[in-house]
Write a structure and sequence with these properties.
two-stranded antiparallel ribbon, 1 helix, 16% helix, alpha+beta
């Protein structure tokens, strides 16, 4: 569950200004190549209902088959 309180000057997708809201949330993780980062972030922002989605970018040293053996 996620909680938030929309502040003045916002246009909440769910909830009311200055009231704490609580809803089910989903965490989505993807592995992408560095050259696709900007395109991926743009796509997330275009479809995400929140005004400012939380996006964490975590660089990986290695990913995929065999990465554990490096």
């Amino acid at each position: 569950k996620g909680t938030w309180r929309p502040l003045e000057g916002t246009t909440p997708y769910i909830g009311k200004k200055n009231e704490i809201s609580e809803e089910e949330e989903y965490k989505v993780e993807v592995t992408i190549k560095k050259e696709n980062l900007e395109k991926t972030m743009t796509a997330i922002k275009e479809i995400h209902p929140y005004e400012e989605p939380v996006i964490n970018v975590i660089p990986l040293y290695a990913a995929g088959i065999g990465a554990a053996f490096l």
